[in-house]
Amino acid sequence: MSDTAGPVLQAEGLVKTHYGESGPTQAVRGVDLHVKRGEFVAVTGPSGAGKSTLLHLLSGLQQPDSGSIHLDGQSTRTWREHRWAVERRKRIGIVFQFFNLVSNLSVADNVELPALLAGVSPRQARAGREELLAELGISGKDRNLPSELSGGEQQRVALARALINHPPLLLADEPAGSLDSKGTHEVMRLLSRFHQRGQTIVLVTHNARLASAADRVISFFDGRIADDAQLDTAPSRKKGTSAVLKLGD
Ligand code: ADP
Asked: Is residue 241 part of a domain?
């Protein structure tokens, strides 16, 4: 059983060095991060600060040199690649800048795949897909290939794929990074909407404007947390005013 009262994510002392052609780079230099259930946390900072590396560590796509990660109170210390892959299907939804959809699968199959892999029946997977795609405003494109959709639509499909198994944690790495301003606004509006319904989100972005949609903003600099600020959006959200209003349009 997961501990529903504790933090969804707890990282302590994370350190990660990359070994590239120009020698080693310590991308993450000792990061402690606790994310509570229902929080929308933006990690922002300049390019090269180590934000993506941090997200890769939190999702098990890369392993830290040292430090620990707990998900729902459970230590990930003994998890190897296969276990992380299973947990990414069930407990961690991820959206990336370039969508990472399977190009030769239809929209419907892209969204249903994680559910089927998690052991959900085909009927339930279809129902879940239909509900999510309708909610995300892209009904009627189920049989299309990803390449037949706009960037904004592809990112909405990627969001549906990330959320179909109802993961307690959604990680988003520059989800609007390859979109025009309309697509950016759509994606941010959808993230805020899911957050308002209780979805815990960690969003990595170099765009401070997007970060302001979150209720907590962590500034990342040179592999470390330089600032961790709570934004005062919660009261207005309770009154039904969306934090997206802060996006300036
Ligand atoms: P950000 O997401 O903030 O732009 P990254 O985590 O991508 O930062 O990168 C942090 C640092 O680590 C940069 O100096 C980058 O060049 C380096 N880096 C990231 N990934 C790799 C890699 N796979 N191999 C070598 N160096 C890397």
From this structure: no
- Cα-to-centroid distance, 161 and ligand 1 (Å): 26
Domain count, the chain: 1
Q: Give the pocket of ligand 1 (CB within 6 Å).
A: 18, 20, 25, 27, 45, 47-53
Query: Does the residue 17 lie in any domain?
Result: no
List the pLDDT tens digit at each of the 249 positions of the chain.
Answer: 444 568 999 999 999 999 999 999 999 999 999 999 999 999 999 999 999 999 999 999 999 999 999 999 999 999 999 999 999 988 999 999 887 899 999 999 999 999 999 999 999 999 999 999 998 988 899 999 999 999 989 999 999 999 999 999 999 999 888 888 888 888 899 999 999 999 999 999 988 878 989 999 999 999 999 999 998 755 444 433 334 333 433
CA–CA dist 158, 42 (Å, integer): 19
- 127 in any annotated domain: yes
Residue type at position 21: E
Q: What is the CATH number of the domain that holds 143?
A: 3.40.50.300
Residue (of 77, 61, 67, 57) closest to 14 by Cα position = 67
Q: Phi, psi at residue 233, to the nearest 5°?
A: -105, -15
| 22 lies in some domain | no
Of the residues 15, 17, 18, 218, which should be mutated to test ligand 1's pocket, given the most ligand atoms within 8 Å of the CB? Answer: 18
- What does pTM read for this prediction? 0.89
Q: Which atom of ligand 1 is nearest to the CA of 46?
A: 3
Closest CA to 71 of 61, 79, 82: 79
| Residue 101: domain span | 37-64+78-230
